[in-house]
Amino acid sequence: MGFSESTELDELLEHPPSDTDLTLAHALAPEEIRRGDFVTLLDEIVELPSFFWCGDAVLLPCHEPVRIRLVSSGGGIPLRVKQVCLPFVLARLPCGQHRALDVRKCRLARLGKSYARVAWKAYKKSGAKTKRK
Fold it and tell me: End-to-end CA distance of the chain, in Å?
């Protein structure tokens, strides 16, 4: 008994995704960040005093901060690197504002060029619309 309907697998086999369809953000070491790169925040480190936890004082000394890695809420938003002076990176947002990043407290990823261009234009347009209102 055969099936005449094509499945998603058949379509993928006939028309595999091209390199222009899929890109992958590449996590960067601080020394890999270059001027002109399009980057985005992957995650950020937040430090909190250990006394926020009701734990054993032996396990969490009160003078040491607790570091928590959080997924960034700004992930995917392209930032264009204007200047690098490690551990600091000066980046420009699509809306024209600048942001100083400390790579000791955040991890950056290089965006694929095609995604970066499309996202940059999209965020730039949405920023211009909110400025006019």
Answer: 61
Residue 98 phi, psi dihedral angles, 5° rounding: -115, 150
Q: Where are the domains of the chain?
A: 26-132
Task: Provide DSSP, 35-53.
Answer: TT-EEEEEEEEEEEEGGGS
Q: What is the pLDDT of residues 65-113, one digit of tens each?
A: 888 999 988 888 999 999 999 999 999 999 999 999 999 999 999 999 9
Q: What are the CA-CA distances from residue 9 to residues 2, 14, 23 (Å)?
A: 16, 9, 21
d(CA 68, CA 55): 16
Q: Is the pTM of this model over 0.90?
A: no
Which H or E element spans position 14? Answer: helix 8-14
The per-residue pLDDT for range 20-66, each reduced to its tens digit, is: 567 788 899 999 999 999 999 999 999 988 777 666 666 677 777 88
